[in-house]
Amino acid sequence: MKIGTIGRVGALMLAAVFLVTMAGCGGSKKKDSSGPADAYLTTEELYDQGREYLASHELRKARQMFERINMTEDARDLEPMVRLSMADATFYAGDSLSLIDARPLYDDFVILYGDHERAPYAKLQAGVCLLQQVNHPSRDQSMTYESIEDLNAVIRRFPGSDYAGVAQIKIDNARNNLAEHDYLIGKFYMKKKAYQPAEKRFRNVLLNYPEYPDRDKLYFALGKALVLADNMDEGSIYLGKLIESWPNSAYAKDATKLLAKDSVADIRKKEERRRAKEQARTDKRIKEAEARMMKARKKFAKKNKKKKDEEPEKE
């Protein structure tokens, strides 16, 4: 009777151990299933998921997906598009740092896959990365020149591509920025009454950027700078061309007034009065500075004399 009881107890203990072991296994499986839903996605699924994130502008998630693909060994066929998608996900963040980071990614794509159908797009984007960092003609334009080189490379290397036409449009816009940059510098010189440097800037736009759209504005600025620089003969040529070619322009009315002899005479009289006032202010400042210096010298001499008088005489 006692032996039977012990046997039953032993059987129950073995059953309990078995159940605990099974429960442990079940718990482990449950823990695994609670991990990330995309933990076991294939390369293609990771790429598709990344593209979906990119389309919905969830850029951080998109980059995470593409980075995981780069770490797998079965992504050779998808590697070009993964690289390009990574560049896009970086580019569309839009901030300056992202644009700086995206450009070499596009360039790397062109270097590695120059024959790929998306290579023209990548080269175009490399130029756009630079253009978007400039933003306004008033800023330094060194990156604009560099971007034009990238965009010209699209036209040279991929002349039959649809992106060649897009590149040309962007080149035209970039050149307009360069022209406007020179024009704004010329306007700055005009405000400073530095008419000859202003005239050089306006003339540079006229000669080097024939596609500049605001020709009436440019002719007026150049003509006015020449007139105020005492070159009435050449200035009147540009002002007359403005009146003839753009009679309805607001600048044409201003040009007509500027060409009037009385108007030019008035401008010159005002300029002479302005220069006389500036000279008077300069002379006043010089006299005040000389007076302060003389006062300081007298004060120093008086202090030095007093110090010598107070020193005991040497025997």
Can you characterise this structure?
With 315 residues, the protein is mostly helical. The termini are far apart. It has helices at residues 2-33, 43-55, 59-70, 79-91, 96-112, 119-134, 142-157, 162-191, 195-208, 215-228, 232-245, 250-259, 261-310. It is built from 13 helices and no strands. Helix content is 80%, strand content 0%. The chain folds into two domains: 43-177, Tetratricopeptide repeat domain (Serine Threonine Protein Phosphatase 5, Tetratricopeptide repeat), CATH 1.25.40; 185-290, Alpha Horseshoe (Serine Threonine Protein Phosphatase 5, Tetratricopeptide repeat), CATH 1.25.40.
What is this structure, in a nutshell?
By secondary structure, the chain is mainly α.
* Most strands sheet: none
Order of helices and strands: HHHHHHHHHHHHH
Please tally the helical runs, counting DSSP H or I stretches of 4 or more residues: 13
Helix fraction? over 70%
Assembly type of the chains comes to single chain
**Rg over alpha carbons:** 39 Å
Total strands? 0
- Approximate shape: flat
Structural descriptors:
single chain; 315 residues; mainly alpha; Serine Threonine Protein Phosphatase 5, Tetratricopeptide repeat; 2 domains; 13 helices; 0% strand; flat
Topology (SSEs and partners):
Layout: H1 2-33, H2 43-55, H3 59-70, H4 79-91, H5 96-112, H6 119-134, H7 142-157, H8 162-191, H9 195-208, H10 215-228, H11 232-245, H12 250-259, H13 261-310
Helix pairs in contact: 2-3, 2-4, 3-4, 4-5, 5-6, 6-7, 6-8, 7-8, 8-9, 9-10, 10-11, 10-12, 11-12
